[in-house]
Amino acid sequence: MNNIKKLLRFMIFTILVFTFPCTAAEDNVFVQTDEFNNLRLGNDYIVIVVNKDENAQGRFAIETTGGAPMRNNDDHKPLVYGRPKPWTSYTTIWIDGEHYVFGGKTGRRAGKNGKYGEVTKEPYVKNNSIHTMTVFNKISVEQVLTPVKSSTTGLFNSVQIKYRIKNNDTRPHKIGLRIMLDTMLGENDGAPFRFGQDAVTTDRLYYKKELPVFWQAFDTLSNPNVTSQGTFNGPSVTPPDKVYLADWGSLADGVWNFDFNPNEEFIRKGEFETDSAIAMFWVPEILKPGQEKTYITEYGLGGITIVPGLISLGVTSPAEVTINKINRSFPVIAYVENTAEIAAKNVKIKLSLPDKLTTEQPIRELGNMEPGDISQIVWKVTPTDSNLPREISYEVKVEADNTDSNSVSRNVKFVGPPILNVELKLKDKLVTKLGKLSPNPFTVSATINNTGDSTLFDVNTTLVLPPGLVLAPKERYRKYTGFIPPDQSVEVKWQVKALDVEGKLPFAVEVRGLGGYNSTEIKNIKLPGRKPLIYLNIRDEDRLTEGEIITIDVMGENLENLNKMDMVLKYNPYHLKPIYVSRGNIFLKDGKLLPWEEPNINKEGVIIVKEELPRKVNRGKITSIHFKVISLQQIDLTWGESRFYGNNNNPIKVELRGIE
């Protein structure tokens, strides 16, 4: 019954994955805080567990929930140890020769000897990811953990482990990163790391050029409890510079450098138990002021097509291969286990490929295999034609002189690279109100649509503004959108403020992603003209009663080209009586009074304002006229014939407005 339930769940999920690639993970996601104060984000296959306590805050574990759809013995098993609270795995940031541990302080063995920063954002869920932020002086480090598709299963049963580091200082810093994972396969802590053709059970160092596309681990091929997988190369990760396989105790004690003993078994340092771990290093690089760098790896469940037999055969390869100018090949890995009770004689294995694909040595001689022996073979498969079918099937067959043969078929899909179309828009209609741009700030957006065949990972967008346009307060130029699957789009918005400018202004949005993806789109914003404006503003409207004093301010906008003004204001003397006038802030600077000609209010029904502006200003108050209210029948103030002059006494046109 359990197998039937899991099969139905797998079939439903497969339909979701291939019909709605963007929402497949979201449809199955759960978020909860467990009884140990861990934040848990998971789906039908896998769960990320993050420690929320102050002690070791931000450290994480990875476990299965339902595991592989057709297997019952991998449910609720640890892939990265962390029960009941994650603490054994940790990440180190190398800053100018000092070693800092990400997250909250701990007195326990793992990372006890490191330095610590301040957790400024405790673990929280955003956009189907668990985020945690730690700051080390002027260096901010964000940890982002996200369920993603495994490259070999095509299901959301892997975890993207991402660190985004930013130099917020005014000087450069040298930054490096180490991610140490306390790996575990259910109850088995000593299964070999399978790196290409190597089954590693002792301390081992791999450099970048030696790293396989992915590595796997399982306890037994014929009936594995859990099959784990880490990814080093591909469109969704940033390859580490070197990888150490070692015992957990040594890596726990050494925050950056550690006691590494090549060919020594994974026996926990200072103890007698097998305890394996993996550490990925990205060597220190200079990060300039304001510069950011992202480090990404993946770890979770792996997919192997297994056919048991006297000679059990398991085959794996990427479920989907992106073909572009950089990537022209993919690995096929076969695991062969002699599960018979006798030695298998003259074992040979053959990879059969369809047309347009080739490999070196499709037939390999494995020799004799004793009972329980496991061999692993890697082929590098390369297309011979750029016009590949959408999907192919290949076969791996193993034979021996004295046992039955066995074979496995597996499919691979070929897809093209991601292609992004970016549409820039001004979201608001810009107008001028009282001489000012409205709205200001306003919204611009970039709608990014992936019309390609494959997902672009770690997408970030940067807004580029010309002089005269700036970001609104608390806004930021660069924004991250995660990944964009094929036929999906995402909209990114910015709040932008215009300074004292008008006309067509260009702005640009730069889109970047993993694998060197970089494109830029440019668009013009048309800002309406800002004509000089002088208008009247009534103060103290609640005092509009007979016998009270009210104030009318004469306000100016866009006055930078105005030198002199000769204005006439008309009023009804039966309704209003001018009492006195006062200078506006245009005629004040640094607390000092500037030359000002007091307006003439002696002529009944008319106020004459003749001023020569003492300084260049854009806006401000020209004068304030204080009236006594005689009658409330009508507060009528109108403009009479007025003239305005700019440089060299050239007349200029100014818009005049009465009381709104």
Automatic annotation (TrEMBL):
Give GO terms: molecular function aspect only.
carbohydrate binding
The highest taxon in the source lineage is Bacteria
The signal peptide, as residue positions, is: 1-24
What stretch or stretches form a coiled coil here? none
Q: Which UniProt keywords apply?
A: Signal
Q: What is this protein called?
A: Cellulosome anchoring protein cohesin region
